[in-house]
Amino acid sequence: MARRAGAPEVNAGSMADIAFLLLIFFLVTTTIETDAGLDRMLPPIEPPDTDVVIKEKNIFEVNINKSGQLLADDELIDLKTLRDKAKEFLDNNGDGTCTYCKGKKDAQSSDNPTKAVISLKNDRETKYGTYITVQNELVGAYNDLRNREAQRLFGRAFTDMEAEYLNPETSSEAKEALKEKVKKVQDLFPQKLSEAETSTSN
Predict the structure, then answer these.
(1) Are 91 and 75 in contact (CB under 8 A)?
(2) A Gene Ontology molecular-function term (predicted)?
(3) % of the chain exceeding 90 in pLDDT
(4) Using one digit for the tens of pLDDT, what is the confidence trace for 27-42?
(5) Is 71 within a domain?
(6) Domain assignment of residue 201, yes or no
(7) Which domain holds residue 67?
(8) pTM
């Protein structure tokens, strides 16, 4: 009687090569999303030759404590009103030199948008979500005022122009046309948003 042949063996010699090729394929084709982060200009390495003196009324101080409460110019405010408070400060025109401002011209508030500085200070225990939300509201105040002026000057929102200018798919000719417009609006309301040293609650 003939011996029954066993089941044929599977040649697994090339399995490691196949797995390696699949690994390379997925590494090459997979895209990993990254957060854009916060757009901030770092100070120059070299200190300026002269000390810059900023009047206290030209500084809008925003403090966040560890509980997420906001203090704007020593006044306890709600997060919903922060953007309006910041816009009121930036657009104040205290010295009357701003021809495009529509503020109250309060002598106790900022003189001019080019002199106005927003200073943000947070506690070490401040929640990251609160910190980002406050940052967004302050940047939003600048963008709202810039949008207003861009609509007046060019009939278009500043944020749309800036997004198109920064888009890598925008043609060089279109970028060149937008560059001067974007800069002009930015110069009307320069974003002077500084962060003070983080404090620790007792």
Answers:
(1) no
(2) transmembrane transporter activity
(3) 46
(4) 888 877 655 555 555 5
(5) yes
(6) no
(7) 56-195
(8) 0.73
Residues belonging to the chain = 202
Whose CA is closest to 57, among 100, 112, 132? 112
Decide: 63 and 119 in contact? Cβ < 8 Å. Answer: no
Asked whether residue 4 is domain-assigned, the answer is no
In terms of Cβ atoms closer than 10 Å to its own Cβ (0-12, 13-18, 19+), residue 135 is middle
Answer yes or no: are the C-beta atoms of 121 and 61 closer than 8 Å. Answer: yes
Average pLDDT of the residues in 23-29: 87
Written as six digits, the tokens of 57 are: 């009324």
Q: Tell me the C-alpha distance between 147 and 11, whole Å.
A: 68
pLDDT interval class at 15 (50, 70, 90): confident
**Paired tokens of 17:** 């090569």
| CA distance linking residue 181 with residue 153, whole number of Å | 9
Number of domains, the chain:
1
Percent helix, strand and coil across the chain, each to the nearest 5:
40, 10, 50
